[in-house]
Amino acid sequence: DAKTTQPNSMESNEEEPVHLPCNHSTISGTDYIHWYRQLPSQGPEYVIHGLTSNVNNRMASLAIAEDRKSSTLILHRATLRDAAVYYCILRDIAGGTSYGKLTFGQGTILTVHP
Amino acid sequence: EAGVTQSPTHLIKTRGQQATLRCSPISGHTSVYWYQQALGLGLQFLLWYDEGEERNRGNFPPRFSGRQFPNYSSELNVNALELEDSALYLCASSLRAGGAGNTIYFGEGSWLTVV
């Protein structure tokens, strides 16, 4: 499985933008980049995903490097409810037994200060 | 629209017993996934079912098993429980795992405590 590397932790102040980086230098052409977040004692929550182009939704934006070896999740205005563990995951759409299997790393613990 | 629902929310079992956890996917979803999150550890992939068949399995012993029913709901069985099986068990679902980037949605999990 292609692996991702994220900082262990990041901090932000409320109402400020947050840029969460992810490195995935071994990404293959059929890997989608997915982001999930997990609040304490809850299941992971889908945030956003993309393949090559930058993506926006109501929760966040995803900026993907041109060579696809890194990406950044952008929370435009952090709130206290955004404090969570953020996971960057590569998901292979090419099929085979690796498909359907999300491989979670340790993620980034985001702390938001009031 | 209801999300992925799991039951029970909490379960306490004695070492050596069997535990059964249940999951109802989002309506229209045919793929169901099971993950284990032990305290202090990351989420570990357990099983993936689609259209009633097991499609992939993580690195877990055979005493972890499951099945998917015709209505696409699923259950996870853990036999001969060991203390280290204590964890949050998460179920997730998606449309048929074949569409580009089909999103996987998770439930809130079932806490299993083995004493």
Any descriptors?
heterodimer; A: 114 residues; mainly beta; five-stranded mixed sheet; four-stranded antiparallel sheet; 9 strands; 0% helix; 46% strand; globular; B: 115 residues; seven-stranded mixed sheet; 11 strands; 50% strand
Give an overview of the whole structure.
The complex is a heterodimer of chains A (114) and B (115). Helices cover 0% and strands 46% of the residues of chain A. In chain A, strand 5 and strand 6 form a beta hairpin. By secondary structure, chain B is an all-beta fold. Chain B contains no helices and eleven strands. In chain B, strand 5 and strand 6 form a beta hairpin. The radius of gyration of chain B is 13 Å and the shape is globular. The model of chain B has no long low-confidence stretch (mean pLDDT 93). Classes of the chains: A mainly beta (114), B mainly beta (115).
Strand content of chain A: over 45%
Q: Pairing-aware structural class of the strands and helices of chain A?
A: mainly beta
Helix content of chain B: under 10%
Shape of chain A: globular
Number of extended strands of chain A: 9
What shape does the CA trace of chain B take?
A: globular
Quick description:
The complex is a heterodimer of chains A (114) and B (115). With 114 residues, chain A is an all-beta fold.
